[in-house]
Amino acid sequence: MKKIIILATGFTLISSLAALAGEPYLPRTEKAFQRIDTNKDGKVELGEFTPVASRSLNRLDGNGDKQVTAQEMESALQKKLHQRVEKMMALLDTDRNGVVTEAELDKVSADMFNSADNDHDGGLSMTEAHDFKRSAWRKSYLAQAANVAGSGH
Fold this sequence. Notes:
The protein is an all-alpha fold.
């Protein structure tokens, strides 16, 4: 089971590279849809979508020349990947020795699970999992990991 969690984390990281790349994509969630639907008519029109796509591309334009090369894309992806790895290590490597052990993974997983299990019945409902994504515990835990990652430890 633990190896499945580690593999799932790895696959999530790899699959998120497409999102990090900045290519245009249609909104995947209601929240993203609402953010793009600037006139709030319940439809995303090309005039609302195009600026979002342009902003995505501009984030990759390292030298600001309004053209994006493969090297600029790779550089942006490498930077995001490095930041993500730092955050993951800061979250999971609780003793800060540069290695994530199964014991550390178990501890973090148990902390997350137990914090999400609001009714303490030993199982998570979809509502509890969703609520956890918005919880103060998760935000403070991730902020703590980000601070550690940013400090170079």
